Input
Amino acid sequence: MELSPFTVRTDKDVGYRSLFSNSGSLVSEELRNLPLSISVLNQDLIEDIAATDIFEISKYAAGGEYIRNPTNDTQFNFRGITNNWQTRNFFIWYLPTDSFSIDRMEVLRGPNALLYGDAAPGGLANIITKRAQFKDFSRVRVQVGSWNRLRGEVDYNKQLGKNLAVRLNLVDSHTNDFRDYRKQDFRGAHLAATYRPFKNTEVRVEAEIGELERNVGTFMFVDQFSSFDPAVSATAGTAVRTGDANNYYISYDGNTALRYGAAGFRRSNGTSLVIDQTSPFYGIAPREWQFTGPSAFLNRDYSQLSATIQQRLFEKLTLEATVNRQDNHNKQLRSDFNSLEVRRDAQPTLPDGSVNPNYGELYVDNRFSKDRFTNHVTDIRLAASYLLELPFGVEQRLVGYWSDRTDSFQRRRWGERFASNPAVQVYRRTYFDQYGTKDLSWELLNNGQSILFGDSFARNINSLTNRSVAALGSYWDKRVHTMVGYVRHYWNVSRRNAVIVPVGNTTEQVGFQPDWIAADEIRDDSLNYGGVFHVLRDFHGATVSLVGNYSEAFQPTGNVFDVFNETIPPIKGQGKEFGVRLELMAGKVVIAATKFNIDVVNNRVNVAQNVRDEVNSLFGAGLAGGSSAGDTNTLNSKGFEVELTLNPTKQWTLTANYSHADLSQTDVLPRLLPYWEQARAANLPVTQYVNLNNLVSPAVTNATVVAPERKHVVNAFTRYTFSSGPLAGLTIGGGANYRSSAYLGIVGTSYYYAPSSTVFSGLLGYKLKVFDRAVDLALNVNNLTDKLTYTGFALGAATWDAPREYRLTATVRF
Output
């Protein structure tokens, strides 16, 4: 069967270099002919780095990295811009992504509305799953390693007759973590089938189910104690805990409930900075400590099912239809941000008046909540491709697609409250000197002292329809290639309000109103165009190309309003790229250099209630209330990237890249800025508009740097396999990941950065025969020099990276 233009081609992969990609326009095109920045992390690289999930793969992507946010494990950062979700086979994907079903990961950088509809302007990662092939093969893989890692995989592919092939992938994985209590158990099954009933017809079916059970732990500790000095007074270096009735709380020490705090109660404060290796307080607690204990969990059960039919009607016309469904069920017990705030006990006496034996001691408060949330996503896509051949060697591949996505989301959250007064939150206090001796397991307080109280109840349905057309042209004997695309977006949001009933001294959300509330439909357009000019093409094995493109992204905000209760327009990404590509030695050496500039318009900024209250009090502005009220700015990311791929011999392959990004912002807070300027012009004391000043002043005075900016990133990995001599079958390799210091925010008048780092990895492998079966052995050592590093993405939010880790993998091929 002739390959369909929609088929993902991997047959031309050589080492770490892949020649084709579908991630730009859905149809398969040579990467060197696409005016887009696309990096392919293929199966060879995935196996060599012993990656088990998408995040471990992503650390070798140019211009992108996993944020490592324990509360949102689908976040990536591309060119300094955060993307909260990725795609799988070109459809949005909220579910776990384990490598057992992955064939490759393609990173498309820059705005990308043409194929994906709504997406972040910085880029996204598109996962291509394994497909059934028309040949027989199978393999069994076992991996053991640090922290009780034990993992088994089966990959079985069978051709059943001339027209049918099936492929089954299974995985069972367990691993602990260098942090206390953390673990992850994953079991999954992925089935793919390809059926060709007729010469020009192909039907593909894919299904995956999985169960993920883990203790997710918390972020790094944050300093909230350094300002307090017990020798001065009970109030020095403390902050007043203020707010409504929901800010009343008790802390429970494991034996009895004691009222430690209420509105107006004072507790110690500090710099609000993470306690990292540059902090004077580094070492107050080992990196392994986490006070959420063994009870915290995030469990996911998911399933995915898709069906695709491709039909070639004529020699040049191909149609494709795909239906994709994913279902995600989550149960979670987690602790809020207090679980990382280290405080010092500022109360010399207990509530009953007796002496506090823990006065001046460090502690952590945990407030636990239970969550249940589900996603049900249905995607439909229809696509058509027609190859139009014109005189003088001109070709135009015309592509059109219509897609529709319905995303139904529902979440219920319960927080622990005091039974006799549900307005009082319950916290679990653990002093540092109790760690390791106190049972940190969570359960409701005994004797009916606490209840689970409904904190939030949400249900909404998002619907996105896209109509796209694109033309990929080639001219002048394929020396010039162009791409032009246009997409029209239709976005709808419907939601159901919660039913609220009184419970004790407060209220609880217990259900939904019967009627759906629909927001106004959002319509928008996106445009993409670009070209490639091969100045030299295959001239003595060399090709020199000039590349340029303009692209747009569309990211609706749904039911999101500004401080005047007006709907905030969709986020729009507008990107420009210019670059040079060089191929030498008939493609054995490939170098690409790209300069980019991206504007993110209508980038939303949260505005706290205390800021709105302050502005209303001073100026009678009438700003709206509600948690969704906000403002905007325009975010800019500009920089350049260089990518290198080497395959000089069959034995040696290498991939390396460098990326540089500068972030800045303009049009800062246009709704609030006039009030801030008015206060300054009137010479009002800052104390009268301190909350407004804390929001606006840093944004205005530090517009040339934006968190989480990391200016320089370098990634490299290489592998060499001896094919002859006494070392035949031996593989050696390794890699490096350099991250420059990352700007996280401003403290007072000083800029604050997470430190730079270089992390090395090593690979040692050997190929042999056992009972006529090919066996591959590989030892991977990650963080070879045991470098102390962490990933930070805000002043008070960061997570430690793993220390030195070993993985031993054995693969038997049948």
Q: What stands out?
A: The chain has six helices and 48 strands. The mean pLDDT is 90.
